[in-house]
Design goal:
Order of helices and strands: HHHHHHHEHEEEEEEHEEEEH
CATH topology of the largest domain: Helix Hairpins
Helix content: 25-40%
Shape: elongated
CATH superfamily of the largest domain: DnaJ domain
Largest sheet: 4 strands, mixed
CATH architecture of the largest domain: Orthogonal Bundle
Oligomer: single chain
Number of strands: 11
Radius of gyration: 33 Å
Strand order of the largest sheet: 6-7-11-10
Length: about 300
């Protein structure tokens, strides 16, 4: 059966960068690694194809030859002189390292490459493999999530001990956000690179702030007089106190926006907005004189707020 195109195996375009090739390999290798899929022959075969494709495309010289001649460039019967019209006769029968120019960069991939193309030898169990990623959840306050902080995390090591790490948490994280600590995951096998550690944040609820995306909502109690006559009031924000104006006749539950006073965007790009919802707080008890005044007020300001309702 004909081999599948190496770029297709890694899900890449032919003009993919070296970084994209490495990222695609690491992602697919973790997904199909035999340790993750024990006893799955299909996954094992897929892992072999991924490793084979990466071993060729990750080296500039071998990638150049593959782009020019395809899979036949790595056959022991391949005659590069015949294929290029340069008169090289007799077919290539030398060592694979000579074929790739003896570059030291080949050594890092020799285990995979020699196993896959080394004269029909079987794949050994000592192929370098990347370590698995790990996750560690930490609790932080709402204020720490808004301003950023530095946390000290104790994470278990492979040898059973504990490692203390100092991790910077950027402003704007939310519950479920992940902060990557490169190279602090599980150790690689047989010389493979270690995985990464992801610090997962869990933000504790705030007493009166609620986050909605990058916006913050806060309910603020006001008096009946403040809503009827209008007033300047102080409201809390994550930056401290802010002053806003209630216009006369403000309805209960109305929202006011303080632009740019919300949560910082985690990937940059400014901040969200802060919304203040006013909640009228009424007196629980009225004396006789207050009742007389309210009855007089009602008589002077007749209203029928349910007149438009039909039932």
């Amino acid at each position: 059966m004909a081999k599948q195109d190496y770029y297709s195996v890694l899900g890449l375009r032919r003009d993919a960068s070296d970084k994209e090739i490495k990222q695609a390999y690491r992602r697919l290798a973790r997904q199909y690694h035999p340790d993750v899929n024990p006893g799955d022959a299909t996954a094992e075969q897929k892992f072999k194809e991924i490793s084979e494709a990466y071993s060729v495309l990750s080296t500039p010289e071998s990638r150049k030859k593959y782009d020019r001649f395809g899979h036949q460039a790595f056959s022991t019967r391949f005659d590069p002189g015949f294929a290029s019209g340069e008169g090289f006769a007799g077919g290539y029968t030398g060592n694979l390292k000579d074929f790739f120019g003896g570059r030291s960069s080949f050594e890092g991939l020799s285990a995979i490459f020699e196993e896959l193309w080394g004269g029909g030898r079987q794949r050994t169990p000592h192929t370098p493999a990347s370590g698995s990623d790990r996750e560690h959840t930490i609790d932080i306050s709402f204020e720490e999530a808004m301003r950023g902080t530095t946390v000290h995390a104790q994470v278990p090591r492979r040898d059973g001990g504990m490692e203390r790490l100092q991790v910077k948490i950027p402003p704007g994280v939310d519950t479920g956000s992940k902060v990557r600590v490169a190279g602090k995951g599980e150790s690689g096998r047989y010389g493979g690179p270690p995985g990464d550690l992801y610090i997962v944040t869990r933000v504790r609820p705030h007493a009166y702030f609620t986050r909605q995306g990058n916006d913050i909502l806060c309910e603020v109690p006001v008096t009946l007089l403040e809503t009827l006559l209008g007033a300047k009031i102080e409201v809390p924000t994550i930056d401290g106190k802010a002053t806003m104006t209630l216009p006369p006749g403000t309805q209960n539950g109305r929202r006011f926006r303080l632009r740019g006073k919300g949560a910082p965007a985690l990937q940059g790009g400014g901040r969200g907005d802060h919304y203040v919802a006013v909640q009228v707080v009424l007196p629980e008890k009225l004396d006789a004189r207050s009742r007389e005044l309210l009855e007089e007020f009602a008589a002077r300001n007749p209203q029928q707020p349910r007149a438009s309702m039909r039932w």
